[in-house]
Amino acid sequence: xxGGKVDILFEGQRFSVDDHLTILQALESVxxxxxxxxxCRGGVCGACAVFYRIDGDHTLKTGLxxxxxxxxxxxxxxxxxxxxxxxxxxLEVPAGERPEEHVVHLYPEVNRCIMCGExxxxxxxxxxxxxxxxxxxRGDLEACAEESFDCIQCGICVSRCPAQISQPNAALAxxxxxxxxRMARAEHxxxxxxxxDSGRYTKDFKKLVAMSQDELKNLYNRxxxxxxxxxxxxxxxxxxxxx
Length: 243
What we know:
Number of helices: 10
Strand content: 5-15%
Oligomer: single chain
CATH topology of the largest domain: Fumarate Reductase Iron-sulfur Protein, Chain B, domain 2
Strand order of the largest sheet: 2-1-5-3-4
Largest sheet: 5 strands, mixed
Radius of gyration: 23 Å
Helix content: 25-40%
CATH architecture of the largest domain: Orthogonal Bundle
Structural class: alpha+beta
Order of helices and strands: EEHEEEHHHHHHHHH
Distance between the termini: 54 Å
């Protein structure tokens, strides 16, 4: 149907829109202007989550309105902000407690998981949400950090969870505690921080701050770039004075 029209229903109103548009583009083409429920427009921030059904199909589907194309008979509603638990913490672990235990103490509701799998089925990023909840329960922060890394915090899984688990925030805590306590330290990063603290790049920073926007763009466009297909660790710039 490329180049044609499809009929969609958005919050009770029917519209005929071009079939090559994303949901967000289609709604804006008929006059909607979004202040909330839209963010990066690139599928990263998770702000534009939507629920929808296709006429004649009982299945409840989810997606990101900036990424999902409209379909004939699509019946849509935006996902408003969905309340979910978010614990304030300082990354400090109480004496006598391991980081793995502390994450569960912050989000004890992970133990209520009934393994229905609805969170994994409905995730627009195809993340095994139920799987990483189990990893938190087992104390495997590394595996949880790896599995949940692509989470965009859209909250769709929270809206469908019968156990009222805040999966995205529990996983975020797991990644933070893993990075703070279990992940190997990056020696090259510590070296670079020490160089910055020593004042090695102060003159360069001041020069950049004094540049105009056009000068910065020109400098960026003329930068020496690593080849896209270079094997990790095999490329070095010709100018190595700042390494």
